[in-house]
Amino acid sequence: MGGMGLGLGMGLGSDSAAFSPDSMFAASEDGGYYEVSDLSTVWQDSARTTPGVVGQPVGALDDLSGNGHHLLQATTAAKPILRQNGSGKYYLEGDGVDDVILSSTTLTISSPMYTGAALGRVSTSTGTVTAYTFFGPRFGGTTRHDVAARMDTSYIPYVISRFNASATVQVAASTANAMNAANPFILDGYLDADSSDAYSRDSAGGGGTGTLGATAGSPSPEACSIRAFSDAACPIVRHFYGGIAVLRSMSAADLTNVRTWLGERNGVTV
Amino acid sequence: MYIGPYNFIVPSGVLQNSSDVFNILDPDSGGAATFSVRLSADGSEPATYFGARTMLEEATVNALQNMTTTEFKAYIDQLAVERGREPVGSITAFKNSLIMDDTMAFWEFVASQGLQHIGVS
């Protein structure tokens, strides 16, 4: 009985049970992926010698892709804290002040490229409209392919991804697709030759899709570090469960698999 | 074991001295960059104060909160040797100027000092 049930469930759902982000790097694609729940990849120090402990600062998060784009922070004041939520899932919590972890190595962004992250909020506070970047390759202020969210006055994230943009967010799922306050969520952006598409989903089913505007253009080929908590002063979205950034084309099945994997990091059903 | 977090503000005039001290206090190698949050009275340049929010080792908390200037200097000199860090000269300006808090959210603490963040994202 048990075996039949398991088989049926796997058959009807996605094949995420067999999916590993390793497959996104099988042809030596550049990029990285990160999974906080794999505690063997979490370190207290930037030299990656002292294993991570819940409640303590994190100085390194290993890149699982094999490309060596480990996310590092050598300044304790700028280190996020390792946390575990009520569902047993691990995440990094930034302080909304100065925390950021980033690779000392770089990748040169180009099309096609995919960036996605599993994130969470810390409050439902209200505030001014602004945009914050959470994860992805970034060089300086404008060359980037990162996932960001613009908050409305209720701090509902409804704008998702940007490419080579400064603080002006280019992509929008409509406000009708706004995610619900306080829920964990995933964001991604995929750029190929035709367009750049963005996707969001929260744990209550909110979210939607959007498309980059005409200013998406061609990527500037600067070498970018990969960062989490890129806008360190973001006051609301400060939980990072995992993420992936990879220079490759993505089929519809690839997108579904990666989004499902991201959702499994923080309890979001895609 | 780290405890905290703790909020800090230092005047820009003692930023270098404060950075030199935290280069020793931070067990990791990047302590010199601790005070990275630019602050001023009206939120515009130039920065007149610098802030940080950080976890600290228990021994560091004790040193900052309970030691005299003389005791703190001896402590940090010893720590510099143990950690192979650049020793710092006088720490008097740092010790006399450091504003430390563990009761407020960081931005509330900043506001309580009559300061604002420069260059919000």
Q: Can you summarize this structure?
A:
Chain A contains two helices and 17 strands. Chain A is mainly beta.
Protein model, in words:
The complex is a heterodimer of chains A (270) and B (121). By secondary structure, chain A is mainly beta. In chain A, 10% of the residues lie in helices and 35% in strands. Chain A has helices at 2-12, 252-266, and strands at residues 31-35, 42-43, 60-61, 71-72, 81-84, 90-93, 101-103, 107-108, 113-121, 130-139, 143-151, 157-163, 185-191, 196-202, 207-211, 223-228, 237-246. In chain B, strands 4-1-3-2-5 form a five-stranded antiparallel sheet. In chain B, strand 2 (37-40) and strand 3 (49-57) form a beta hairpin. Classes of the chains: A mainly beta (270), B alpha+beta (121).
Give the SSE layout:
The complex is a heterodimer of chains A (270) and B (121).
Chain A: H1 2-12, E1 31-35, E2 42-43, E3 60-61, E4 71-72, E5 81-84, E6 90-93, E7 101-103, E8 107-108, E9 113-121, E10 130-139, E11 143-151, E12 157-163, E13 185-191, E14 196-202, E15 207-211, E16 223-228, E17 237-246, H2 252-266
Antiparallel strand pairs in A: 1-17, 2-3, 3-4, 4-7, 5-6, 6-17, 7-16, 8-16, 9-13, 9-17, 10-11, 10-16, 11-12, 13-14, 14-15
Chain B: E1 2-11, H1 15-25, E2 37-40, E3 49-57, H2 58-66, H3 69-83, H4 92-97, E4 99-101, H5 106-112, E5 116-117
Antiparallel strand pairs in B: 1-3, 1-4, 2-3, 2-5
